[in-house]
Amino acid sequence: CIRDGCRDAVRSWARPYNEALTPSRACHPTPRQDRGTLAHVDMWPAGINFMIQLHYFPGNASMTPHLLLEELGTPFELKLVDRSANAHRSPEYLTLNPNGLIPVLVDGDLVLYETAAIVLHLVDTHAAAGLAPRVGTAERALFYKWLVWLAASLQSQMPMYFYSDRYVAAGNAAGAAQVKAAAETRIAGLIDQIDAQLASHHG
Predict the structure, then answer these.
(1) Contact 105/112 with Cβ under 8 angstroms?
(2) How far from 46 is each of 50, 127, 187, CA to CA, in Å?
(3) Which of 39-43, 109-113, 164-168 comes out lowest in average pLDDT?
């Protein structure tokens, strides 16, 4: 089912990035050609200020910019936002993102939320890495389309599948089941779009 497939995929992709992460962890990624393990560096000089901080929680949408930062090979600091303790609802976190959502990227004086916006900022400020097509090209326009599609079309359906009880009155199990079934149908159609797109490029 969608639940098992999505969770298995996320676990396999995220495991190297989520294991043994402390609430505040400085990271210096391994070179791009060696992605077997990540070099999370624990011992940095006292008082060091990192230009880039990623406020994250394992298994959340923060995985996308986390993977991108690792791929870029730029030093950054992970800041755990403990959802189990409602840290994303704390006054301190709400000053970063008034929506109480994860992730947030702090890059110097810039505070940025919304995963797609974070991705665009990182690829633009690290253009030499070549992880996005050149600005002004048709390829770049398609890059925009699929990035926003993932955030606005696909990701927006996931809460209705995994947390369907939040969309109905308390105790309305039948209603929650209907919400979940409808979301599953929509997600399946969206996944078919991805499959067709990949197939058009020979997978």
Answers:
(1) yes
(2) 12, 31, 47
(3) 39-43
For residue 5, which amino acid is it?
A: G
C-alpha 114/C-alpha 68 separation (Å) is 14
Q: In a 3-state reduction of DSSP, which class is residue 32?
A: coil
Q: Which helix (H) or strand (E) holds 174?
A: helix 173-200
- At 73, list the tokens: 């090979």
Is 118 within 8 Å of 62 (Cβ atoms)?
Answer: no
Based on DSSP, count helices (H) and strands (E) in the chain, helices before strands: 7, 5
Residue recorded with tokens 């070549």:
130
C-alpha–C-alpha distance, residues 79 and 57, integer Å: 8
Q: Judge contact between 11 and 193, C-beta under 8 A.
A: no
Identify the pLDDT of residue 51: 87
For residues 15-21, give the mean pLDDT.
41
Phi, psi of 57 (to 5 degrees): -145, 135
The DSSP code for 37 is S
